[in-house]
Amino acid sequence: MARNLSGPLLRNPRRMPLPRILLPALIALTCCFATAMSHATTGTTPATEDAPAHVRCAQLRTGMNYREAMAIMGRAPDSTLSGHSAAGPGDDPPAGSFAIDFWHDHDADGRRLTTSMRYRGGVVEEVDCGRPDPAPAAAKPDGR
Where in the sequence is the signal peptide annotated (predicted)? Predict the structure, then answer.
């Protein structure tokens, strides 16, 4: 015996059946309550826009490219030191150019902190985050 499928929902084209309404509603709710997952894979909490350099530096890793590192730091360095290393005997690294970028800021106690990033060939080799400056004059936030 054949079933009669011409019920009230199929006869009235303006009225959608419940399953057709439910799926878009669930998708909309999921989109509204979804959270960004991009930083969940890094294992660190992203620094805010106004975070000091020593806080942002904690997200840098050796081996990352220079452009990615600069995007994390969020601003140009306060100073840059460029150098050239001579080739050494045996297993020493070959000759080549390198650079070290420096950022300066202050901690909550007003001590001046220096953050540095050494890179060669567009690849970060070393990171030093928030090292306190040893000079007593550097302890004043106004720089005097």
Answer: 1-36
3-class secondary-structure state, position 27: helix
User: CATH code for 53-89+96-139?
Assistant: 3.30.1450
Q: Bridge-partner residues for 115, per DSSP?
A: 103
Cβ atoms of 112 and 133 closer than 8 Å: yes
Would you give the distance in Å from CA 56 to the centre of its chain?
Answer: 8
Contact criterion met (CB below 8 Å) for 38 and 110: no
* DSSP-derived 3-state class of residue 82: strand
C-alpha to C-alpha distance for 73 and 60, rounded to whole angstroms: 8
Query: What is the model's pLDDT at position 36?
Result: 45
pLDDT single digits (tens) 35-73? 444 443 344 555 556 789 989 999 999 999 999 999 999
pLDDT: which is higher, 54 or 92: 54
Domain boundaries, the chain: 53-89+96-139
Alpha helical stretches, state H, the chain: 8-11, 18-33, 53-56, 66-73
Q: Read off the pTM.
A: 0.55
**Percent composition of the chain: helix, strand, coil (DSSP 3-state, to 5):** 25, 25, 45
